[in-house]
Specification:
By secondary structure, this protein is an alpha/beta fold. About 35% of the residues lie in helices and about 15% in strands. The chain has 13 helices and twelve strands. The strands form four sheets. Strands 1-2-3-4-5 form a five-stranded mixed beta sheet, with helices on one face. A three-stranded antiparallel beta sheet has the order 6-7-10. β1 and β2 form a beta hairpin. It is globular. The chain starts with 18 loop residues before the first helix and ends in a 19-residue tail after the last strand.
């Protein structure tokens, strides 16, 4: 469990406790900080109920302790009832990889602040791929996971994808020592979404996917999105936006930035090194959407040259407090538990509620992106923050 440093917390009038103190105490009193029974003794609670998770939920409710508690307790109840951790440990590896391609997925690279950069090409989400997803969900072998019969396996699959982000990817990026502000954990990711192939019919076909994904991010994984950069918006984007803005959470919508073709590379290079930008968008990285993460040199060194596997990955703690990477899931109906790499210790940076490092600066410069797509709520010049 990650320890917490109170020195950067603003005090409120609640018994002279900080909002975080009060929130954590309330969660503890109600049993929400205990290790879930589904986890093994060696499993780490990163991304489940550690301090970083509590901080995200508190931020999502603007430091309102009661509202943050309601939100977090609801997620804990759902996670336990639907056996999310068990599903993550046992999900079919091929099915997991199929689902991964339909959601923003990590390229194995980070931005200049150390945040993971995830990509999604919207051409992967069609009426055919959505139908295939439903069919494979119905035929999945779930071993003996004791998942309630009322719970759709299809509904659990996206949880596994985002669980991988919060339970493995974000803690991994936090563990990289040579990055800006190494004292603070990485809690968010940058999403780059390519919609150059989108059609009005496709938007309509994926309306439920859009609603469900937005709701999942807002309710179960709040505050993990730093920004969403949209590439390839067509001329009829205002029509699409008129539909989409009613389907997505307002907080998520506020993080969307539409890039003109001439702005793509200049914007990406303010945030990401050329070596870490895919060639498709003008960079030097030989990587495309759907491929497994191509780990950057610093992460490869941290993981002793590990190649990223197909399927879910998690952290466990070794006998000497070292952090061990374990590939889980099931292959051909057989459960997989494969140790892949070991890092020095289980130490993670301590989360800070007042996070001055989140100012959008690269070096000494602040970068702005002009957006003029001609749609309500997006015609502005937001600072990339």
């Amino acid at each position: 469990m990650i320890s917490y440093d109170h020195t950067m917390i603003e005090r409120d009038s609640l018994s002279d406790q900080s909002p975080f103190d009060a929130f954590k105490a309330k969660c503890s009193e109600n049993g929400l900080l205990s290790k879930p029974e589904e986890l093994r003794e060696e499993d780490l609670c990163d991304g489940i109920n550690d301090d970083v998770v509590l901080l995200r939920f508190l931020r999502a409710r603007k430091c309102d302790v009661e509202e943050a508690y309601k939100m977090f307790s609801a997620v804990c109840i759902t996670r336990t009832r639907d056996r999310h951790c068990t599903f993550y440990d046992n999900v079919d590896v091929k099915a997991y990889n199929e689902t991964r391609k339909m959601y923003p997925h990590w390229a194995g690279r980070r931005d200049k602040f150390g945040q993971p950069v995830c990509y999604l090409d919207i051409e992967a989400i069609t009426s055919k791929s959505l139908a295939t997803h439903r069919q494979t969900s119905a035929s999945l072998k779930v071993l003996e996971m004791n998942i309630p019969k009322s719970i759709s396996i299809g509904s659990l699959r996206p949880y596994a994808i985002f669980d991988n982000a919060v339970r493995f990817v974000l803690p991994l990026c936090s563990a990289v020592p040579n990055r800006p502000n190494p004292h603070k954990p990485i809690t968010k990711a940058v999403y780059v979404v390519d919609i150059s192939s989108i059609t009005l019919k496709q938007v309509w076909d994926m309306r439920n996917w859009i609603k469900n994904t937005s709701g999942l991010l807002a309710d179960a994984y709040p505050e993990i999105v730093d920004k969403i950069l949209i590439i390839g918006a067509p001329s009829y984007m205002p029509t699409i936006w008129d539909w989409v803005k009613g389907w997505i959470d307002p907080v998520t919508a506020s993080k969307i930035r539409y890039l003109k073709p001439t702005e793509v590379l200049t914007t990406l290079t303010t945030l990401i090194e050329m070596a870490d930008i895919p060639k498709k968008y003008g960079g030097e990285l030989t990587w495309e959407c759907g491929m497994l993460p191509d780990l950057d040199p610093a992460i490869k060194e941290l993981l002793n040259g590990m190649e990223y596997p197909v399927g879910p990955v998690k952290w466990i703690e070794g006998e000497r407090a070292e952090r061990i990477v374990v590939a889980v899931g099931s292959v051909d109906g057989k459960k997989r538990v494969e140790r892949l790499a070991t890092t020095a210790s289980s130490h993670q940076p301590e989360p800070l509620l007042v996070d001055k490092a989140e100012d959008a600066t690269v070096g000494d410069e602040k970068h702005e992106l002009t957006v003029e797509i001609g749609m309500e709520g997006a015609k502005e010049s937001p600072v990339l923050a």
